[in-house]
Amino acid sequence: MAMKLVAAAKVRRAQDAVLATRPFSETLQSVFGGLIERIGGESIDLPLLTVREVKKVTICCITGDRGLCGGYNSMMIKKTEARFKELESSGVEVDMVLVGKKGIKYFQNRNYPIRKSFECGQNPNSKEALAISEELLNTFLGGETDAIELMYTKFLSLIASNPSVRTLVPFSASEITVGHDEVFELTSASGDFAVERKDLGAAEPQEFPNDMIFEQDPVQIINSILPLYLNGQILRCLQESVASELAARMQSMQSASDNAGQLANDLSLQYNRARQAAVTQEILEIVSGAQALEG
């Protein structure tokens, strides 16, 4: 029970971290949407928005650093491995960027092509997300890969999570402007832990006056915003993965406690039956001895 409460406190901390990053990501989305509207029908020729012929894909996989969390790590590893084989069978070259000790150990032992690996604790921050996003950006902009896919665990509830895959780069301008966001909140209604999710919708595009003069070309501003947006998305996925891991650990500890309690009850029942059988046997022996003496 104590470990469950510790995990619940960490889930709440992860929830607060997600809420703290929301204003920044919302502002980025709003400014991006406003700039896209300001540009209007002009074509945007930016490397991070350019779709190439896919000859090589980099998979970024997020797992945990620790065990004792049910099937959290194994499900993510299996999904990543299946995606790797699917891309290879299609004739696409694949390499990997790994986040988390469990995934690093698994794929290293099986000689998968690993570009770089990162360790991430249970309190992901912008510095860790920046290191990952810089590696991915440099890989894509340097022409070493044509697309980057992120494998992470989407947090659904305390008893459910979903190993997910999304294309990080290249970006889609329409997806950025209309993308909805969700936040979750850990509650303890009726004495039981539960999660409430809320869809916040897409941020409204920032309105720029028609007579506003930009010091830089709006396209260049968009080009500067995109790396910040990527960093925010990676941080958010790290936080969701950590929340999923902690929720899985919380349920694992609850199951362990329930199983231990059931085992104790079963052993007590067996002990009581054995003791009762021994007492009954002794009574039978005494009665039989007394009858033998009377005879």
Secondary structure elements and their pairing?
Elements: H1 2-39, E1 56-62, H2 72-89, E2 93-99, H3 101-109, E3 114-118, H4 126-141, E4 147-157, E5 160-169, H5 173-178, E6 182-187, E7 194-199, H6 218-294
Helix pairs in contact: 1-6, 4-6
Please summarize what this structure is.
With 295 residues, the protein is of the alpha/beta class. It has six helices and seven strands.
Which key phrases capture this entry?
two-stranded antiparallel sheet, 7 strands, alpha/beta, 295 residues
Describe this structure in words.
- The chain is of the alpha/beta class and 295 residues long.
- Helices cover 56% and strands 18% of the residues.
- It has six helices and seven strands; from the N terminus they run αβαβαβαββαββα.
- It has helices at 2-39, 72-89, 101-109, 126-141, 173-178, 218-294, and strands at 56-62, 93-99, 114-118, 147-157, 160-169, 182-187, 194-199.
- The strands form two sheets. It has a five-stranded mixed sheet, with helices on both faces.
- Helix 1 packs antiparallel against helix 6 and helix 4 (126-141) packs across helix 6 (218-294).
- The radius of gyration is 28 Å and the shape is elongated.
- The N and C termini lie far apart (61 Å).
- The mean pLDDT is 81.
